[in-house]
Input
Amino acid sequence: MSRVPGATRPIRILLAEDSPADERLALIALARAKVANELVVCRDGDEVLDHLHGRPPHEDRKLPDLVLLDLNLPRRSGFDVLAEIKSDPTLRRIPVVVLTTSTSDQDVLRSYDLHANSYVTKPVTLAGLSEVAAAIDSFWVQIVTLPNP
Output
């Protein structure tokens, strides 16, 4: 079971993903890597921000330890979501891993300019996504110390 180093609670991940197929692959890959004991999926940018800010219907939410953010979200782009997260004093310490299909240098630079903690190009196969999930577990769960939200 993956845990935040030094803590006794499970790690909470918010996955921002609008594609049902990519969501299924990500859920399988994360489960195989035993990365998250608590996972919330949001399917558009507005839902991500509603969840993070505790707006209806997310009033009872707990803040995630880590956000996996697709850039290509409906309603509000991943860039807009990232900008709002990193400009909010309550949310900005939550690590945001951009996990997207884009290989554009412009998207990479813009993500880091908006203070993404890392940028990962999303593999298209379950095997590739499982490797990414294991790397996320290795680095973001086992190596770094995450802030308590």
Remarks:
- The chain has one domain: 12-143.
- The first helix runs from residue 20 to 33.
- Residues 12-143 form a domain with the Rossmann fold fold (CATH 3.40.50.2300).
